[in-house]
């Protein structure tokens, strides 16, 4: 690990409309945070009481470093909280899920309808021998049945492992085997950019090396039932049709596992992150409600796939535990044209929109004229997650999408944290480039390698200093890997990110610690140089790597994609070089700039610098099962 280093901080600041602050669930962040610090267990105890439990907990937490238990001996069912609680509590006819297909087809499931679907499918799964504690792999396109399958597992106490439908056969087989899944739930096809993705072929390939799978449930969208192989395949529709309608929710211990989810693996081989029932429910419920400020009439669209943690926590469990209406869309942001998302925001009256910087930069590349064609006045809150939101992208999002009206919550968190840990709570002043401050409920800091806090303006390691309810409990089959998170820096959970704080405690995330480049003895974060490049009007996206250099140790090489209308060439290379020099100084200037049509990314949209680096140095790129096609 590198030493700490100095960072030049952005000073722009946006002041939100005081009305949104007054009306927010957390109207006074500073006060809420100090109340939490004063009595952390009391804080979470109160949140947990807003949900339904079959048995109350004895203690809020038990901390036996590095192992935590939350809501000890409490009993609950998260699917019960996402469904039954609303059906009996006045939300029976409220839309829970609005699904939009690429073809334009739409389906609305009310809380009552979703409840019924989930109970029938849960009964179907149990007829296949799935019970509490057993693992079910879900490999589906973005259809309501994907969410139904997750909630059905939760209802039965089975542990789901959702694998994003864009992964290939090797990635799928590895995850099935690692989790030792007994049943696989899938579909024959998915649709993307007008093309058909043959999921069943991929599954059949993976199944040649997954002896643990006994049955595969197939949601048929194209093939006739007669095509299924009765020895190993089960028709989704038939399974549901013959299942009994009622299925009681199994009473789970707080600490029973809820799901395993493999991390996107932008750094090496995937790890099966394990989350448990009670703490995960409380953490995602609280952050969904407070960070997005969800009110009864809101319509939330989180553009992730339920196959990522973002989808688990902020499409499925958090928002449904709150009882909100969730939009899901199968397809891509720029198909059939770059206005597709904005059309949907307009037509469905989306009020809370949550997406990733990679998508925002893509929209920037197409230009503000696309969103300008639509009425986006329903939007009230904008969110970002997954990578640092470059100041330039922040500005664009704020003006071109939010009309200068909507607060932006840039949420920092991880598969491992299960819930948001840092953001700028609604109503607080926003600083482009900074995710914000720790949310009430989280104790986050920037420290040196011995765990001592570093002063403002000095970069260091982003750590979490106290356990939180929705923290990972282990890495499936590799508890030692779990302990590494807590053993690297004494007393802290090490997130693996570099960050810097300003005088007021705002945190800027600089990127993964392994993305740091040491040039002539100076530490340079890839994210800083990338943000400087992206702030140039010709640049859409940038990825920066370090290249070994005899003289300087490393030099910076930048890979750049351009906005529509910009022309690559030596002239632009010179201009970009001058541009970075002006904003970051000579030490951060790329020695080489290469123009590309697209950058290698993980399927969740993170730039894979490792792949660029391997290509540049003629090395083996390592595990690339998460690379986008
Ligand atoms: C890593 C976790 C958690 C949702 C999706 C990704 C990066 C995440 C931000 C943000 C800067 C961010 C970090 C983190 N990251 N959100 N708002 N600003 N960086 O989950 O695949 O587990 O990745 O994503 O590097 O460690 P994940």
TrEMBL record:
InterPro entries per UniProt: Ac_CoA_lig, ACAS_N, AMP-bd_C, AMP-bd_C_sf, AMP-binding_CS, AMP-dep_synth/lig_dom, ANL_N_sf
One GO molecular-function entry: AMP binding
GO-annotated biological processes: acetyl-CoA biosynthetic process from acetate; carbon fixation by 3-hydroxypropionate cycle
Broad EC category: ligase
UniProt EC number: 6.2.1.1
Residues in coiled coil: none
Domain Acetyl-coenzyme A synthetase N-terminal: 29-82
Residue stretches making up the AMP-binding enzyme C-terminal domain: 528-606
Cross-referenced Pfam families: ACAS_N, AMP-binding, AMP-binding_C
Every AMP-dependent synthetase/ligase domain range: 90-468
GO CC annotations on file: cytosol
Keyword tags: ATP-binding, Ligase, Nucleotide-binding
Similarity field: Belongs to the ATP-dependent AMP-binding enzyme family.
NCBIfam families named among the record's database cross-references: Ac_CoA_lig_AcsA (TIGR02188), PRK00174.1 (NF001208)
Protein name: Acetate--CoA ligase
Gene that specifies this protein: acs
